[in-house]
Design brief:
The structure is a homodimer. In chain A, the strands form 4 sheets. The first copy, chain A, has a 7-stranded mixed beta sheet. By secondary structure, chain A is α/β, with parallel strands linked by helices. In chain A, strand 16 (about 265), helix 10 and strand 17 form a beta-alpha-beta unit. The first copy, chain A, has helices spanning about 40-45, 65, 70-80, 95-105, 160-165, 170-175, 215-220, 235-240, 250-260, 280-285, and strands at about 1-10, 20-25, 30-35, 55-60, 90, 115, 125, 130-135, 145-150, 155, 180, 185-190, 195, 200-205, 225-230, 265, 290, 295-300. The first copy, chain A, is built from 10 helices and 18 strands. The interface between A and B is medium-sized, with 30 and 30 residues.
């Protein structure tokens, strides 16, 4: 089960009642944070998330509203007792190896930070069976979208195992993908006792960007697509395009094309006081849409 | 009249109910901000201050809790319409010329920023008759205290002017420090018609530092001394000394020695949930002490 939360949903600047856009993905007490704008450490607290569980930070791009909170958050992590035994990984687009040390010059940390400058298409392992992949978006600076996949065990078939007369003591190994040799000499493969594979539990996070068909490919079939909604009103199309951002409707069309199970919109313009106002319109395009609110959470269990 | 506000009073990390320590000093619609930690732009908003009035930022030192909010705040200033016609000055201790560009690499600004790396004892002009001076404090990194003085006109003596038969049309010029020649050829100097000089309106701001006798000299006679109170409990003396900070009582003794008119304590440890708890104790040392609260304000009119 993958827990996903948007501690903040605003773009450009923090507001008194809306923190900056970021995403927290937690699995078995280990967490990934995507983006860390000014105030994100407070947004995490307000959402009831535990900073101490943080393993990896992914940065979409180096604009202040996505990264200016990093130094403060990492210092707080140090003050809460993190030490050299527990390194933190920070990954992001090209420039990361220069930008992160520049930003952290005001934050002497008591634990190691590993930097990973990603290339589009890279996949890196997270905790357990998690994989994180990235794609290049279209923004004013190099900007990446991320997808997190949690591999799930296939469905085991007790019927098949019994038909093959496999003693129960071997079932767990076989379910875990191992082969076993029985006392009568036969070798049983995992696939001999598997009913069917299960798709991973998956989340995609793409902001800030112009709408691109490649996003639908990248987010193909995800359980949760998190995408940009700078404005809900289609009249803002020109301004949004000029700043290289996306409208609700553009992200909803991508969610439909991707066959996503659900869509959460985020990164609202500070000028949009009530992001819910445009929800009904966008549900005409993609019914299972939510307008993100600070602290919105879901437990993804996957399907099938 | 000098308006002074502490939009935030916390040290080390922003809390849900306490912003990071900073100081806003405003005179005739022109403002100086000392320090800018994570969230300071929100703290200013909550305190009802107008970011657009900002002329100068002074940084005490380059620890995240004093400077990590700079990029976000300056971006917001740019988004609110500030342009190349209205530059901003940022001044602070050695290292500033390297640190500020590193921090602002995530914040492309549409207006010029002038950097001034100060040496201890430097005095620089602010808006109108304001002067800002600095001293070196004792912290773990180079750290400056600041003092803001607003020069006031002396007290004019109508009696002296009348005794010298100076026509009223010349009084304003003479009060402003100019000399005038009368129609009978006599030259009247400003000091001929001045009752007495008036001391400037003055504020000092010294955090983070070990207590030093030099602070009392620097803050001599100020209308408002703003000083560090990491802890109120004297039992914390050892920890505070180790981290190179100050206790309430240490700052109160300096205020007494300085002959300050009043003392505001700030930069409270996040561990101190109720900074007011130790107020009565410290008033035994310096009666006119306030424990700063986010948004505390005063209009200083000077004395005499």
């Amino acid at each position: 089960m993958l827990s996903v939360c948007l501690p903040g949903t605003g773009g450009f600047m923090p507001l008194i009642d809306r923190w900056l856009t970021c995403c927290w993905i937690e699995y078995q007490g280990h967490a990934i944070l995507i983006d860390c704008g000014e105030g994100t450490q407070l947004a995490l607290k307000k959402a009831g998330l535990h900073l101490s569980r943080l393993d990896m930070v992914f940065i979409t791009h180096f604009h202040a509203d996505h990264v200016a909170g990093l130094a403060g958050m990492l210092l707080s992590l140090g003050n809460s007792g993190r030490d050299e035994q527990k390194p933190l990984t920070i990954a992001g687009p090209p420039g990361l190896n220069k930008m992160i040390p520049a930003l952290l010059v005001i934050a002497p940390l008591p634990y190691p930070v590993h930097l990973i400058e990603l290339s589009p298409g890279d996949m890196i392992p997270g905790y357990g069976d998690i994989t994180i992949s990235c794609m290049a978006l279209k923004h004013r600076v190099a900007c990446y979208g991320y997808r997190v996949d949690l591999k799930r065990k296939p469905v085991f078939s007790p019927e098949k195992a019994e038909a093959l007369q496999v003693p129960k003591q071997f079932w767990k190994k076989l379910h875990n993908g191992e082969a076993v040799q029985l006392s009568d000499g036969r070798i049983i493969l995992s696939e001999d006792v598997i009913e069917r594979a299960r798709t991973p539990i998956s989340v995609s996070y793409c902001t800030d960007t112009l709408p691109m068909p490649e996003i639908a490919d990248f987010a193909k079939g995800v359980d949760l697509m998190i995408a940009e909604g700078m404005y809900g009103d289609d009249c803002m199309a020109e301004k949004v395009a000029e700043k290289k951002h996306s409208l609700y409707s553009q992200s909803a069309r991508l969610a439909k094309e991707a066959g996503a199970k659900r869509l959460w919109l985020t990164h609202f313009s500070p000028a949009m006081q009530n992001p819910e106002e445009y929800l009904e319109n966008v549900r005409m395009i993609f019914p299972n849409t939510e307008v993100g609110k600070d602290g919105i959470k879901i437990e993804l269990e996957g399907e099938g």
